[in-house]
Structure formats: structure tokens, C-alpha cells
Amino acid sequence: MIDSRDLNELSPAARKRAQTFFAACADDPYLLANGITVIATSTYRDFEAQDAIYARGRTAPGKVVTKAKAGDSWHNWRCAFDVLPLRCGKPVWSTTGTDGEVWRRLGEIGETCGLEWAGRWTTFRELAHFQYTGGLTLADFKAGKTMMA
Ligand SMILES: [Zn+2]
């Protein structure tokens, strides 16, 4: 079972944008002024790991954390990564007030790096999730298509 937080596990096209994103965060005046650093908490996840997460809150203890079964998450196709901002080393879990501003800034930076930010999604909005799919759909990936770098 693979549940990685290593950017090297992303597809080359997604990895390139992710690296640009983390470099831009490290250089961003607003984030710097607020003592914010950003880490990756999840990148590539294999089908087995996805099914284990899907089971949470259904057939396993805990609360539901995903609507995606194996193959239905962009993490399964090396396109997506999740981030966590740290303020002076401590995780920023809250999404309101100043913390909300931090998440919004991360989203803006991601978008300038050519990433899609799930913080804009209207269903299953996820502030931590960024992806680059190269214009392909999940059905494309399931059919064996691959994206260009
Ligand atoms: Zn994600």
C-alpha cells in the first residue's frame, strides 16, 4: 500500500507545477510576514490505500473523509497533492479569519502556478487539495491515457 507525501511520486507535469508552487510559497511576502511555511501531506496514493481511506466511516471506524473509491481520486493518477500550512511550525487547521486568508493565499499561488485549486469547488470543496490533470478526465486515465509533460 502506497500513501506518499513525496513530490517525486507525482507525474512530471504535476510535479513541475507542485515544485513551482512550493518555491513560490517560500518566497511569498504575505506568507513570510505571517510566519507561514507549507508542507505536502499527500501526493500519490495507490488503489489499495484509496480503498482503505474510502472504508473510513463506512466499513471501518472514523468519519467519512472521501467520496472517491480506488481510481476515482486524482491522487491515484499522480495528478494531485494536499498541503498543510504551518504557522511558526504549528499546523493551521482552522479555515476562518486570518487562517482563512492563509488558505486563500495558497489557493491563489497555486492557480498562478497552473494548478487547479479544490478550494473553488462547489461540491466537496477541499482547501488543501491542488491538482494538474493536463485536460484529461478520470475516464481518460482509467482508459490508459497519459498526459504530456
Ligand atoms: Zn487531495
From TrEMBL:
Q: Which domain of life is it from?
A: Bacteria
Annotated Pfam families: Peptidase_M15_4 (PF13539)
Residues in domain Peptidase M15C? 68-132
InterPro entries assigned to the protein according to its UniProt record, in alphabetical order: Peptidase_M15C, Zn_M74/Hedgehog-like
| Entry coiled-coil feature ranges | none
Query: Could you state a single Gene Ontology molecular function term?
Result: peptidase activity
Mind telling me what this protein is named?
A: Peptidoglycan L-alanyl-D-glutamate endopeptidase CwlK
